[in-house]
């Protein structure tokens, strides 16, 4: 439950290109992302409107192309550009609904940035996420040094990017390795 809530915040993190991203820039982006999420959560919108708003936040703040390719695993290398494009679009909608469904549980919660540190090609922004009525948990937002967008989140030691890869490659296996069938299944689940 908490992973879904923070995953929402996680995947919806940074916007705009920023080469050689500084720690201060990454902290500012995560703080902006958190404010946008809180504004959306507390807007009183219907579930359908919130899912759509969350998909917009994902597209704005997260490196969805990188996340989608990684989640697809080795199959991404052999996919045609058309298959990859259709899959990525379906994955975005699927992910926005999956994590967006947890929004209401976060009403009244908050995310507090604790600090940041450089790491190879990323800035890792450490935060504490506290859903309403629950204990705070540690969250690390991995912000790309290349494009200034979030590409991964570690929630209490759980790597959400790896978790998505496990789930998507399992779905791909269930679809006989067909990316087109996987895309259709993601659309069905959205």
Automatic annotation (TrEMBL):
The lineage of its organism: Bacteria, Pseudomonadati, Pseudomonadota, Alphaproteobacteria, Rhodobacterales. InterPro entries: MlaC/ttg2D, Tgt2/MlaC_sf. It comes from Mangrovicoccus algicola. Residues 1-20 form the signal peptide. This is ABC transporter substrate-binding protein. Pfam families: MlaC (PF05494). Gene3D superfamilies: Tgt2/MlaC (3.10.450.710). Keywords: Signal.
